[in-house]
Amino acid sequence: MLDSLYNTPVASVIFALTIGLSLFVFSNPQWYGRLMLHPYSIHQDKSKAYTILTSGLIHKDWMHLLFNMMTFYYFGFSLELMFVQFSGPLGHLLFALLYVVSLILSDIPTLLQQKNNPGYYSLGASGAICAVLFSFILFQPKAMLGLFMVIPIPAYLFAFLFLGYCIWASKKAHDGINHDAHLFGALSGLVLTLLMYPWAFRHLLSQF
Fold first, then answer.
1. Mean pLDDT score, 194-205
2. Which of 196, 87, 89, 203 is nearest to 137 (CA)?
3. pLDDT by residue (tens digit) across 13-64?
4. Which one-letter DSSP state was computed for residue 111?
5. Where are the beta strands (DSSP E) in the chain?
6. Which residues make Cβ contacts (< 8 Å) with residue 120, sequence separation at least 6?
C-alpha cells in the first residue's frame, strides 16, 4: 500500500478533484456556503477549519477555474516530474506536501486579517498554484512565461513583477481578489522547496 501511495500521480489527482468539485458547486451553489473560506466562522468555531482546504478545491466561475487549471496543468505536472527525478517515488509525496501546506499557509494572513469580518469569503486554488509556479521557477528561472498570457518574458523577471504587483495590490486594489493568498502562496512555495531541496538556491544562482 505504501508503494502504491508513493507512485500516485498527485498532480492528476489534484487536477481531477479540483475540476470535479468546482463543477459540482457550479450546479449546486448551496454548497458554496459550506466549502468557502470564511475567516469569521473559523474564528468563532474551529471545527470550520476544514474550509481552509475545501475552499482551495472550488472556484467562483468558469473563467476562474479555467485560468487556475491552465496554470496548474502547465507547471504542476512538470514540477511533480522534477520532484520524482530528484527524489524517486518520494517526489510524489513531496509534491503533495508542497501543494497542501502552501494552500494552508497562503490563507493564514487572510484568516488573521478578516477574522472579525463576517462579510468576507474567499475561494480558489490560487495560493497553492502560485506556490507550484514559484517552485518551478526556482528550477527553471529562464523558462519563458507569458505576461498577461501574451508577452514572453523569462520566469525570473515574471517572478519579480508578480511579487511586486501582489504587494501593491494587497494594499491598494479593491477588486475582490485575495492578493495576499497569491503573495504568501508564492513565498510558501519558495521556502518549502528550499527546505526540501536546499541545493536549489545554488542551482538558481548558477543559471545567471
1. 94
2. 203
3. 999 999 999 999 999 999 999 999 999 999 998 889 999 999 999 999 999 9
4. H
5. 144-147, 151-154
6. 38, 39, 40, 110, 114
Virtual torsion, Cα 56, 60, 63, 67, nearest 10 deg: -20
Q: pLDDT tier at 147 (50, 70, 90 boundaries)?
A: low
Single out the residue of 4, 193, 195 nearest to residue 82, CA to CA. Answer: 193
Give the CA angle between residues 196, 9, 58 to the nearest 5°: 90
CB-based contacts of 42: which residues, under 8 Å, 6+ apart?
48, 49, 51, 52, 111, 115
pLDDT average, residue stretch 124-148: 89
> What confidence category does residue 3 fall into, taking pLDDT thresholds of 50, 70 and 90?
very low
Q: Which three cell numbers stand for residue 199?
A: 541545493
This prediction's pTM: 0.91
Q: Are 185 and 102 in contact (CB under 8 A)?
A: yes
* Closest of 35, 44, 177, 45 to residue 116, by C-alpha: 44
- Residues 186 and 78: their CA atoms lie apart, in Å, by 17
Residues in CB range of 141: below 8 A, 6 or more apart: 154, 155, 156, 159, 204, 207, 208
